[in-house]
Structures are given as structure tokens and as C-alpha cells.
Amino acid sequence: MKSFKINTEIYFDQNSLDYLKTLNNLNVFIVIDSFMVSNGTLDSITELISSQNIKVFSDILPDPDISMVTKGIDSIKDFKPDVVLAIGGGSVIDATKAIIHFGKSILNLDNVKFISIPTTSGTGSEVTSFSVITDADKGIKYPLVSDELLPDIAILDPNLTKTVPKHITADTGLDVLTHAIEAYVSTKANDFTDALAIKSILLVFEYLQKCYENGQDLKAREKMHNASCMAGMAFNSASLGINHSIAHILGGKYHIPHGRANGILLPYIIEFNANVKDYKSEVSEAAKRYSEIAIYLGSNSKNVRSNVKYLINKIVSLQKTLNMPKNLKETKIDLSNFEDLKFEMAEIALNDKCTLTNPIKPTKEDIVKILDRVKE
Ligand SMILES: NC(=O)c1ccc[n+]([C@@H]2O[C@H](COP(=O)([O-])OP(=O)(O)OC[C@H]3O[C@@H](n4cnc5c(N)ncnc54)[C@H](O)[C@@H]3O)[C@@H](O)[C@H]2O)c1
Ligand SMILES: [Zn+2]
Which among 139, 222, 234, 319 could bridge 183 via Cys, Cβ 3.0 to 4.6 Å? Predict the structure, then answer.
């Protein structure tokens, strides 16, 4: 029996933060990163809830690790919150999920209302039961997956994303695209997730470049914020694939921003999954799914192989307009230990939870080959 549910109540548009004015006489624990404190976002939000008793925890860095979660649990311990507010990108929202999740067993957090306010249009974490936490010693990112991690409320105010710099707009936007495409071709895709994924893909192709060129374009920011959330809803139900499995380990070992790693991998993963260069065999189901996306994006062809190429070309030209690196070498990271690490990375990617729903079951050798190509 299949099911589809959305647990999180969503408020969206430029006035959506007004929801916070409905909070009354409560203890509010805020998780945020130091940049969002220094750029005034914290003040603008605490102004809306000035009558509440507020405590702020701002020790979150990108790709949160276990020590940040432990610090957060220490900070929340004696506060007895009624509401936990996560204000930030995926890193802040994921860390907050982990603080609530691991804190629950030692603290009384059962009746806490969890409100997530994303400030990047990227992870969709505001509506997902995923939280990605890094084990800094091992250099591995672990996706925790549990319905208990789902926020009760998500507030999508595009004004909060106007300050996102160009390169982070590009990285996070390609994360949205990867979520939607992986959800669409996932083995758990269904009519409900398809609808969300396709709408999200269309919005990315229409509005990401606009956000990149003019960060103050509020309509484009709003559309990307909605696209991010819709892709989150799609993959929360359909899950993801090896694009994310490999991005997780590349992020863990080389600290490549999550969206950038996904963006670099995307054309290579589509080529691998679709396998349309093998003219001897019939086109796969995965190739047909990518072809459907190409048709939604405007391809007039009925030929699956050429539609897969059309989709890859669309992605590559979008990446060019966003000045994104095409491969790992172009990111200028130090790859001197790559050859030593690639087999271990392939093994870890193979065992990542996202691999389970990839449309093609890869071998370790397949992933090594993909890593070799992505390095270039
Ligand atoms: N939970 C999920 O479902 C899910 C899905 C995909 C990725 N992730 C995880 O989320 C993390 C990445 O999140 P992200 O891509 O949103 O980036 P991020 O949260 O790491 O933020 C990146 C940078 O952008 C800055 N920033 C955030 N909002 C800003 C704003 N409005 N203006 C200016 N700067 C701003 C932050 O301070 C930070 O320096 C990774 O750890 C990734 O693995 C989680
Ligand atoms: Zn992602």
C-alpha cells in the first residue's frame, strides 16, 4: 500500500512571517547561525515576537557536526521551550532537527512546536524528515531519516533570501534541481511526487538564473523558495538517488558545498542512470523518465535518447550561466589524496540511504568510474 502525506503546515509569501505574531506568552528557543545574527535577520524576527521569552543559540556552521548538536542540547537543556525556531539554511534547520531528536530522550521536548524558517532556497529541509549531520573525525555525512524530524510549521518568506550571495544562490538552486530530478526518477516516485517535482524543475529553469543575476528580484526569489519547498516535499516521499549519495561523501571528505557537489555530479549521474549511449540495448525505464522531464522542458522529440541529451544540455547550459564548475578540478580543491580515497568513498556512497531508491542499482566499480569522470 502506497501513501503520501505532508505533515508540515506551510505559510508562504512576503507577509508569511506574520504567523509569528500569533505566538503568545511562550518560551521560544531560536537556532540560527552567526551570519544571520550579524546581518540583522535575527533582530527583524525577534521584533515580531518581542513579548515572548527568547533564548538564542547561534553556534552553527555549514555542514553541522555532532559537537554543534551537543552544544545545542546543552543550551536548550534548562530552558523548557514551547517553540523551537530554526532560522537559516539547511545547516541550521538540520542541526535543529538533530538537537530536538537527540535532546528528546534526555529532555522533555515532546510537546514542543518546531517552526522552520529557511533563508536559502535549496535543501527543502523545512518539510523533510531528513537531517544531514557530519562526523567530522571520519569525514562522513550521515543522513538521519525519521518522521520525528519533520517541522510542524514552515514559513517561506522570500525577503529573507535577498541577501544570499550569487555563488550560494547558484549552489543551493542546483540542489533544488537535483532534489526534484532525483525524486522524479526515484524507484519510489508516484503521481503525487511527480507533480511536485515537475513544477519545481520548471520553476528552477525559469527563475534560478533571474535570482542569480539580480538577488533583489523578489518574484524570482519567491518562486525559487517555493520550488525548493516543493522539491523537498517530493523527495521527502520519493527519496533521492546516488547523486546525493556521492555528494554526501564528497562534502564530508572535501567540504564542497552540498549544492555545488550535486550540481557538478548531475549531468554525469543522468548519463549513468539513463545509459543511452549503449545503442545495443533497449532504452531503460530511467531513460524514459528523464525523457519525460525533457519534454516538460520543451523538447519536441519523441526519441528518448535525444531527449536525455536535451536534458543534460539544458542543465550544462544553466550551470554555465551560473558560472558553476563542471568538475572537481574546476572547484580548485586539493585532490592530491583522491586516488587513495576513491574506493573508500565509493563504498560509503554505495551504503548511503539515498542509494536505495536510485533507478539503477550501481556497483562499487560503477561509483568509482563516476568519481573518476567527475574529477576529470
Ligand atoms: N535535510 C535535508 O533534507 C537536506 C537536503 C539537502 C541538503 N541538506 C544539508 O543542508 C546543508 C546545506 O544547506 P544550505 O545549502 O542551505 O547551506 P547552509 O545552510 O550551509 O548555508 C550556506 C551559507 O549560506 C549562508 N546563508 C544562509 N542564508 C543566508 C542568507 N539569507 N543570506 C546570506 N547568507 C546566507 C550561511 O550563513 C552559510 O554560510 C548541508 O549540510 C546538506 O547536507 C539537508
Ligand atoms: Zn540536497
Answer: 234
DSSP 3-state of 236:
helix
The ligand minimizing its distance to the Cα of 239 is 1
pLDDT, tens digit (0-9, with 9 covering 90-100), for 235-287 = 999 999 999 999 999 999 999 999 999 999 999 999 999 998 877 788 999 99
Contact 75, 107 (CB under 8 A): no
Provide the CB-side half-sphere exposure for 16 (13 A, CA): 21
pLDDT at 110: 83
* CA dist., res. 196 & res. 174, Å (int): 16
Q: Is the CB of 62 under 6 A from ligand 1?
A: yes
Considering the domain architecture, whether residues 181 and 139 belong to the same structural domain is answered as no
Domain's final residue, options 161, 184, 204: 161
What nine digits make up the cell of 225?
523558495
Tell me the ligand closest to 63's alpha carbon. Answer: 1
**Ligand 1 midpoint to CA 282 (Å):** 40
pLDDT in tens, 155-171: 999 999 999 999 999 99
CA 157 to chain centre: 17
* Pocket perturbation via mutation, ligand 1, pick of 91, 128, 248 by most ligand atoms within 8 A of CB: 91
Note the ligand closest to the C-alpha atom of 151: 1
Task: Give the Å distance between the CA of 269 and the centre of ligand 1.
Answer: 23
Q: Given the DSSP bridges, would you call strands 140-145 and 130-135 parallel, antiparallel or unpaired?
A: antiparallel
Partner residues linked to 30 by β-bridges:
56, 85
Residues 223 and 347 in one domain: yes
Q: Answer yes or no: do 156 and 170 share one domain.
A: no
Give yes or no: residues 147 and 241 share one domain: no
Judge if 138 and 198 occupy the same domain.
Answer: no
Nearest CA to ligand 1 atom 38: 62
Neighbours of 311 (CB within 10 A): 25
Give how many domains the chain has, as a whole number: 2
Beta strands 27-33; 9-12: pairing state = unpaired
With a 6 A CB cut-off, is 169 part of the ligand 1 pocket? no
123 Cβ closer than 6 Å to some ligand 1 atom: yes
